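Ops channel
N.P.: pipeline sanity check, posting one input/output pair.
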């Protein structure tokens, strides 16, 4: 993704007092005395998802070309909830793409590890905050294990313990 040329429009992103403009950059929040540059929910969302950078650094450079200004925008109370939603969506998108790569790889001749990873549901691992989450996660894992055991039995396969 191409870096945004901050200096070429500095007069449009910094006010007459030298302060970085935040809300007025966007059509959704603009004042009548300032012409917005972007739509937060169209222009910035599209670039945010296209950059697909969970660190958001390349996203910042593509969107506004200045990390500090990006942080001011990103963390503004009226914008932060929207961008936090985007970050969660991006995380799910990246996980989904990675899982699909593993699915494709699992069908390859050397894809046994990928197939095992998928069968064990390793992609579902996440931080569990409380006892209820842990119990629910264990129930899901137990059900997956039972399904795998049943599938293996139907296929006439046995698990050989200890590699013997």
């Amino acid at each position: 993704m191409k870096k945004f040329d901050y200096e070429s429009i500095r007069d449009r992103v910094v006010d007459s007092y030298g302060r970085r403009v935040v809300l007025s950059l966007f059509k959704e929040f603009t004042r009548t005395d300032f012409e917005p540059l972007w739509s937060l929910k169209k222009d910035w969302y599209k670039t945010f998802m296209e950059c697909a950078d969970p660190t958001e650094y390349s996203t910042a450079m593509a969107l506004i070309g200045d990390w500090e200004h990006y942080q001011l925008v990103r963390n503004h109370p009226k914008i932060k909830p929207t961008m936090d939603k985007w970050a969660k969506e991006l995380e799910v998108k990246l996980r989904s793409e990675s899982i699909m790569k593993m699915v494709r790889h699992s069908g390859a001749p050397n894809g046994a590890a990928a197939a095992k990873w998928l069968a064990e549901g390793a992609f579902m691992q996440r931080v569990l905050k409380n006892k209820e989450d842990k119990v629910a996660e264990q129930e899901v894992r137990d059900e997956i294990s039972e399904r795998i055991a049943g599938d293996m039995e139907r296929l006439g396969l046995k698990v050989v313990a200890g590699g013997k």
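N.P.: looks fine end to end. The two ends are 52 Å apart (CA to CA).
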